[in-house]
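Q: Structure for this?
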Amino acid sequence: VAHAHGAGPVLLREAVRALEPTPRLCAPSGNNQLLVMLLGDSGVGKTCFLIQFKDGAFLSGTFIATVGIDFRNKVVTVDGMRVKLQIWDTAGQERFRSVTHAYYRDAQALLLLYDITNKASFDNIRAWLTEIHEYAQRDVVIMLLGNKADMSSERVIRSEDGETLAREYGVPFLETSAKTGMNVELAFLAIAKELKYRAGQSADEPSFQIRDYVESQKKRSSCCSFV
Ligand SMILES: Nc1nc2c(ncn2[C@@H]2O[C@H](COP(=O)(O)OP(=O)(O)OP(=O)(O)O)[C@@H](O)[C@H]2O)c(=O)[nH]1
């Protein structure tokens, strides 16, 4: 019997879905559809992050590990233009890597998550970036996200550590919470803006810097720590 996230027998839903073929994902159908992929270790909160963005809800309770790959669509408005995001939620578990690798090359943007309460998930970010450089498009937009920022009492990775790592790799960084929704929408909007800017870049358009945009828009805390 396989185990989900090393924490008990595989739940029925996972067992059933494991028998299903990997879903066929649509290729981009035009300039207004963007393919975004969520990556990171198992348990960092990728599925919850996507559900929070899509439905404004948080799935608490039993953790059901994603099998292979899943996706959701959401339309956002960026500078007055409707953009359809097709967001692929990948399984963080090692045993599904060969499945998810196959999809990297189609993604225009990658949200790479770690869990601020889990040091291993942060330490593994370098390995994830190595995989990204091996399998993804060279000009893919990458954003580093330190998720579960609501769990301040269990924090083991300081915000500065996330910022330093992101700076080293030249990618924007945000701390997020799939539970409270902190910075969740901002992460997707920043990516959509960056991709739209790249696609429509013209000489008279003021230059858009995703890192400056994220810095100016982000919420530093999910709650009331400075009140
Ligand atoms: N407090 C808190 N818990 C979270 C947050 N995000 C996810 N969780 C919890 O973390 C656990 C794992 O979340 P998932 O979204 O299933 O993790 P995942 O990264 O999709 O895992 P895999 O599918 O195995 O790759 C669940 O029990 C969630 O309820 C968050 O922002 N804050």
